[in-house]
Amino acid sequence: MTQFIYGSYAHAPDSVAFTGLTRTYVDAPNGKHKFLRLQMNCKGKLIGRGSNPRADIFGQLNTLQAAYAGGGGENARMIDDNGGTMFFLDNGFAIGGVVVTNPISHEEISGAESVTYLRYTFGLQADFFFATGTEVLNFQETVSFSDNWGRPLCVERVPAVGEPIIQQVTEASFFHATQSGSMTTVGPNPTPMDPLWPDNLRGQDGSVSVTYDSPVMIRGVPVEYSVKWAYQFVSTTPLVGLPNIMG
Questions:
Q1: What DSSP string runs through 146-188?
Q2: Are 37 and 125 in contact (CB under 8 A)?
Q3: If phi over 0 gives left and psi between -120 and 50 gives alpha, with beta otherwise, what is residue 29?
């Protein structure tokens, strides 16, 4: 004998069976497992009793629908005839609690259906953290160079009289670079990457930019935090470097 219990509602013994019990991973953009998702798809049967079994069935159905009407937030378990737990969705550990993905539903009512019995289905889901702490879920960084490679600078001039000319105005020029990127972690407020050339930050307002985004939420629970950074560099000698790699 088995019995399915959702919150304080106990289905009749041996009245509920699984049509599917799946465990899947929800992956981050870098391919790492982010969540473990458990899904229970179930089918059940209400049996009418007494002198008016149809009325009894629909009375049971109203109580059953009310038990699942909140959309989730309850423990769900299948117990055996010794009271031992065979399967369990823990609302306290699930991200945002256990969710009702398919409320109590039933198909066409005909014949003996709804007169002596009524078959129904429902589905539950729970997500659990797989990645933890400061584990990186997504990372990208770009390093770009925008300068004249230190060569002389020239300007375009159009004289009042005569043909346009290209005029050299310096013997050398600065080297410029930009380092920008973003990172997403499970834990709050990830630390941005360090500047590749800290001694060559431009030294003006705007040379360092760090942005924190509001976390991604699932049912009121923060599950992803992200940070963006951008650094501007200038140097009298070539800046040599490549973006960081992580993930």
A1: -S-TTPPPEEEE--SSS--EEEE--S---EEEEEEEEEEESSS
A2: yes
A3: alpha
- Domain holding 76, by residue range, is 2-129
* Dihedral over Cα of 67, 112, 109, 52: its sign: negative
CA-to-CA separations, 4 to 11, 87, 118, 129, in angstroms, rounded: 6, 9, 17, 25
pTM summary value: 0.81
H/E stretch holding 64 reads helix 53-68
Residue type (1 letter), 80? D
Q: Would 247 be classed as within a structural domain?
A: no
Each residue of 45-55: pLDDT tens digit? Answer: 999 999 999 99
Question: pLDDT tens-digit profile of 168-201?
Answer: 888 889 999 999 999 999 999 899 999 999 999 9
Domain count, the chain: 2
pLDDT for 167: 86
Instruction: Tell whether 141 and 196 lie within a shared domain.
Output: yes
Query: In this structure, are 207 and 151 located in the same domain?
Result: yes
Distances, alpha carbon 234 to alpha carbons 45, 147, 170, 201, in Å: 74, 10, 17, 6
Q: How far is CA 114 from CA 7, 62, 121, 134, in A?
A: 26, 13, 14, 54
